[in-house]
Each structure stands twice: as structure tokens, then as C-alpha cells.
Amino acid sequence: xxxxxxxxxxxxxxxxxxxxxxAGFAVDAVGDLAAADxxxxxxxxDAIVLDLGLPDGDGGxxxxxxxxxxxxxxxxVLTARDRLDDRVRHLDAGADDYLVKPxxxxxxxxxxxxLLRRPGQTLTDRLTLGDVALDVGARSVExxxxxxxxxxxxxxxxxxxxxxxxxxxxxxxxxRAIYAFDDEVTGNTIEVLIHRLRKRLSDGGSRLSLETxxxxxxxxxxxxx
Length: 225
Hints:
By secondary structure, the chain is an alpha/beta fold. The chain folds into 2 domains: 2-116, Response regulator (Rossmann fold, 3-Layer(aba) Sandwich), CATH 3.40.50.2300; 126-221, Orthogonal Bundle (Arc Repressor Mutant, subunit A), CATH 1.10.10. It is 39% helix and 23% strand. The protein has 8 helices and 13 strands. A 5-stranded parallel beta sheet has the order 2-1-3-6-7, sandwiched between helices. A 4-stranded antiparallel beta sheet has the order 8-9-10-11, with helices on one face. It has a two-stranded antiparallel ribbon with strand order 4-5. α6 crosses α8 (189-203). The two termini are 27 Å apart.
């Protein structure tokens, strides 16, 4: 799941970025409205975490512009403004949730997962295919009921496939879903990640097949289904 974080405080922005990454999100973090607008026009985000007091304007204006333009992704307002009328005004303007600073990282991640579980969104608590299961919140993977250790991006890639079993994921779709703008992606980055996940599944005894469709993409399927 790819998230756009808009926060002008550099220290808080980088801390929150790392905390969300540890919770399994790919995060693009920016510090002003101009960068947020450019990011939103360039990439597809599953959710936005939005501060209100930004150096080049108010986050509420960005929120209203998003909704006026038809953008439907969940937006969680993350701000120091704790007055009731602020909460009401921005929820009415199109925010899906409102969290006041200071906040706990675990709560922010849980609220994002809750937003993405809403009807029409893409997140569920547990994903399974064949003998493989992923607990989305805990970021834990089981094969045949036994826990196996996967790296963060291996888990993110597995999650992408588990959300689309039997469907092809192109290299571009994988890159867009699990890598942020400043992540280094070279010509063979996706192939290496696919190889690592395939080996993890095989070493864990999974029956799932992670197939390469040359010139098209990759697909995870259960041969026994």
C-alpha cells in the first residue's frame, strides 16, 4: 500500500515515514503543498496523510481541491489543531479521519488500515492463498501454519500478489505499489525481489508457484486450486 505523507516538520516527517514503512506501507514524504500536488499528479496513492499548517498554504485547500477533482483515496488529516470546529470543517470538506498531534505511530498505522478496509477500498486483516497466509497488521507470514521471516519488501510484494491471486502484476505495477520516489530501483531490482520471494516460499515448503511471464509480468497461483 502506497501512502503520501504531507508534513512540513522535517524531523516528524522522517520519523513518521520510517514508522509507516515499518508497518508495511511504501511512503512518499513531502513538506509542502507544491510537492504534494506534484506527487499526487505523478503517482497513484492508496491513502494520504495530510498536515494542515504548511509553509505554502493550508492543507484544507489541498484536500478540497483533491475532492473537487474527483480523487477518492482516503485522506487522514494529521494536525495539531484540536478544536471541534476544525475537525468538523475538515471532515465535511472530505477528510476520512482526523488525528491530533501528538500521536502514537501504532494508532496512525491502525487508522490507515481501518480506512483501507472500508467498502470500496483494498485492505483486509488477513490474506490467504493455498498454504500461505499474511496478517496485514502484524506483517507476519505463515506457510502451512508455521511462521516464516520475510524482509519488508518481500512481505509487501507477497501482499500485492495475495490481493490479486491468479492475476498478472507487471513490473511497472510492482514498482508503483511498493517503492517510493526516492527508493533506488535499477534495471533488475524487481527480478531480484521476485527471486528472493520465490526462494522464501520454496524454502518454507509452500506449494504456491510464483511464475514469470516473459514480456508480461509475474503471477502467484496455487497449482492445487
